[in-house]
Design a protein that fits this description.
Layout: E1 8-10, H1 12-20, H2 26-33, E2 36-39, E3 44-47, E4 49-52, H3 66-78, E5 83-85, H4 94-105, E6 113-118, E7 120-123, E8 126-129, H5 133-147, E9 152-157, H6 166-178, E10 182-188, H7 192-201, E11 204-208, H8 218-227
Helix pairs in contact: 3-4, 5-6, 6-7, 7-8
EC number: 1.1.1.317
Enzyme class: oxidoreductase
Protein name: Perakine reductase
Length: about 240
């Protein structure tokens, strides 16, 4: 089993600050220093630094001006940061729409890897976690439409619906992979037992859990689970939330 810990998401603010400290040609500089890494054993290759897009449409403060965010996305891609992380719940669909617009403006789809997520929906302004197969399929179709793409590179289960066995949710995701609508599957904010159960249904190539100076609890079970020889070989991605 291999555990890769080198991947880090960068918020729009962090990325902008980083870019301002490069030389007069930041795109050339970053493109030369952002390596590619393989997530898992299934074949997905991404930039070692990704761009977390959540804050572009709210969550942390007010939504940012769309033209500025599109410009930032273009700059990131031109600089070698080609892994874009979003979710259908960020800005209640508006984050995916923003990324779709940014990619269409310059025909950049083939240059990037897109990770998005399902399971968090809003009912009367109240968030609800849903892992029903019917919802999973409809959510996937919605994300494909908003992003204006034919296939999602990495599709995370954003949160776990405790009312639905993870095997049932994963079963529908496996079908979406077989249909060519999703390439790879990941999990977000999960425990070790859920990783094992999900991986038994279909390979999990990434786990998006917080691992920082503030949050170290995953070292007790998550990391050992990933290193366990009882599972098939797969690699995990951990986010740095700082």
């Amino acid at each position: 089993m291999t555990v890769k810990l080198s991947f880090q998401l960068c918020t729009p603010y962090q990325y902008t600050q980083y870019s301002h400290h490069t030389n007069s040609n930041p795109q050339a500089t970053m493109a030369s220093v952002v390596p590619k890494v393989k997530l898992g054993s299934q074949g997905l290759v991404v930039s070692a630094q990704g761009l977390g897009c959540m804050g572009m449409t709210g969550t942390y403060g007010l939504p940012k001006p769309e033209p500025d965010m599109i410009k930032l996305i273009h700059h990131a891609i031109g600089s070698g940061v080609t892994f874009l992380d979003t979710s259908d719940s960020y800005g209640r669909h508006t984050n995916e729409i923003l990324i779709g617009k940014a990619l269409n403006e310059k025909g950049l789809r083939e240059k990037v890897q897109i990770a998005t997520k399902i399971a968090v929906r809003w009912i009367d302004d109240i968030p609800d976690i849903c892992g029903d197969p019917e919802y999973v399929r409809s959510a996937c179709e919605g994300s494909l439409r908003r992003l204006d793409i034919d296939c999602i590179d990495l599709y995370y289960i954003h949160r776990i619906d405790i009312r639905v066995p993870i095997e049932v949710t994963m079963g529908e995701l496996k079908k979406l992979v077989e249909e060519g609508k999703v390439k790879y599957v990941g999990l977000s904010e999960v425990c070790a037992s859920t990783i094992r159960r999900a991986h038994a249904v279909h390979p999990i190539i990434a786990v998006q859990n917080e691992w920082s100076l503030w949050s170290r609890d995953l070292e007790d079970e998550i990391i050992p689970t990933c290193r366990s020889s009882n599972n098939n070989r797969f690699s995990l991605k951990f986010d740095d939330y700082i």
